Automatic annotation (TrEMBL):
Keywords, ordered alphabetically: Repeat
Domain of life: Eukaryota
Gene name, Swiss-Prot/TrEMBL: Pum2
Positions of Pumilio repeats: 22-57, 58-94
GO biological process entries: post-transcriptional regulation of gene expression
PUM-HD domain boundaries: 1-171
Keyword Repeat: yes
PANTHER family per UniProt: MATERNAL PROTEIN PUMILIO (PTHR12537:SF12), RNA BINDING PROTEIN PUMILIO-RELATED (PTHR12537)
Protein name: Pumilio-like protein 2
SMART domains the record matches: Pumilio
Length: 171
């Protein structure tokens, strides 16, 4: 694990194709592994776009599970923080329709915070609007309150964040 991470950090990306080739078809499994998730993050940080594209495509296929996974959520957060705008958007689109549910989840709530913090203004508005939508009830958990708090603190979208206080809450 540490040796592979160090190689990825120190060796020129052009020399890492054999590592990336070995990971193809295994990205979902590696992203869900306590050590593998770190290696996938290093690949995304240090390799060239043409090398990371197949890795990202595999991630996108498993995003619904990875956001809730104990280790996979870190990989998705990494993409939301450091990824290309189109990859961030694809992840955010996959979260829509489940914002309240994911916000109350132990691991997915961290992904929701990163999504709100790193979304384009229109995407951020969609995420926040889903929380505010009439009939949307968000369970009151420590995780969901953190997400709602981050939504209120990062609204440059013009959404009516004052209505977050009146959002229906289920205990």
């Amino acid at each position: 694990n540490h040796v592979i991470q160090k190689c990825i950090e120190c060796v020129p990306p052009s020399e890492l194709d054999f590592i990336i080739a070995a990971f193809r078809g295994q990205v979902f499994h590696l992203s869900s592994h306590p050590y593998g998730c770190r290696v996938i993050q290093r690949i995304l940080e240090h390799c060239l776009t043409e090398q990371t594209r197949p890795i990202l495509e595999e991630l996108h296929k498993g995003v619904d599970h990875l956001v809730k996974d104990q280790y996979g959520n870190y990989v998705i957060q990494h993409v939301l923080e450091r990824g290309l705008p189109e990859d961030k958007s694809r992840i955010i689109v996959s979260l829509l329709g489940r914002v309240a549910q994911l916000s109350a989840h132990k691991f997915a709530s961290n992904v929701m915070e990163k999504a709100i913090a790193n979304a384009q203004p229109s995407e951020r508005a969609s995420l926040i609007d889903e929380i505010l939508r009439p009939g949307s009830s968000i369970s009151l958990t420590p995780d969901s309150t953190t997400v709602v708090g981050s939504a209120g603190g990062s609204s440059s979208s013009g959404s009516n964040i004052g209505t977050l206080n009146s959002c229906p809450v289920v205990e």
